Predict the structure of SidA/IucD/PvdA family monooxygenase.
Amino acid sequence: MYKWVIIGGGIQGCTVASYLLHSKKADTASLKVIDPYEEPLHRWKTLTKRVGMKYLRSTSVHHLDPDPHGLRKFSKKEEYAQPYIGRYDRPRLDLFNDYHESLFQRYEWNDIWMQATVTGLEKNPDGWEINTGGRTISAERVVLALGVNDRPHLPEWSAPDDERMGHLFSSQEAKGSGSLVIVGGGISAAHLANTYAVDGEREVTLLKRHPFRIKDFDSDPGWLGPKYMNGFQKVTCYEKRREMIKAARHRGSITSGLSVKLKRHERQGRLKIITDLVEAASYDKDHIHLQLKDNEGIKAETVLLATGAENCIPGAEWLEGVIHSYELPTAPCGFPVVDSHLEWGPGLYVTGALAELEIGPSARNIAGARRAAERIAAI
């Protein structure tokens, strides 16, 4: 039986594992991280590479290592050129990834990693049984570090079976060349538009529903400390907490730096930017035609959706059965009600989206992962 099992090896799960190992609350013999992919941060690396990200949105102190200055020490030691940009010292993506490769080697992650897909949880007198289809793992404590970016949100007019249309979060990339329409107004869509515009090999249109929302971060930094969190913690109504989270998140926002780049591409004729709604789509032999509400329709040979993830509970396909079987407390929105240590049930902990009613609007990002990991490792 393991002392700790973390379900999910993305940013959230890897941060919790790093904190547990660093604090010596676990070692390579007592900890297991279960994830469908072969290596840590696989989904993160895949998506950031796909959009062409060069620098993170978060600051240099927000990473997976408990030492907030670890990334900066590493960049100096390895002598990275221009490791950070902007007033907030946003790190280079390759620096960020290289640093965590060194971190995983330091903690001997090969010994704690298990490639498998979890299908269920069962309580036993000593802890939990984690079902992975063909194998069962026993643990005293389980951390649910489940993401939602494997559940792409598809507009009603989309045709996901058409190979000329793809979604950023889908494993199936859109096939085709020639004119490209990117649908979305958030930071992922902006990165994609910038990447294809720089490439310059095809006609690129960015189609968004709203004007650019320029924000440095996906929520105000005040949510990382007492400035806003003191008031949030005093709210006992979880419906009100959900409203506060929705209001605080800068959904569909992009950084000022990306906005400048996109407008420059537009001026130079490498990118067309349209703000409008798609009312319908038709799929002809040679192109996809998007009918817009206020503008002339667009013809494209390829459509790439950057419309985010479904608004759902992570792992719902098997987690709902666990919630029902063990009467785990949930708010009206269906998300967990947990204590200050993020414990949902005896020996069952959450991080990421599942912890947002306790951690607040930052729960899904790297800073939120660090705050959640601190609480869990303090047990």
In short: The radius of gyration is 22 Å. The chain has a mean pLDDT of 95. The chain is about 30% helix and 20% strand.
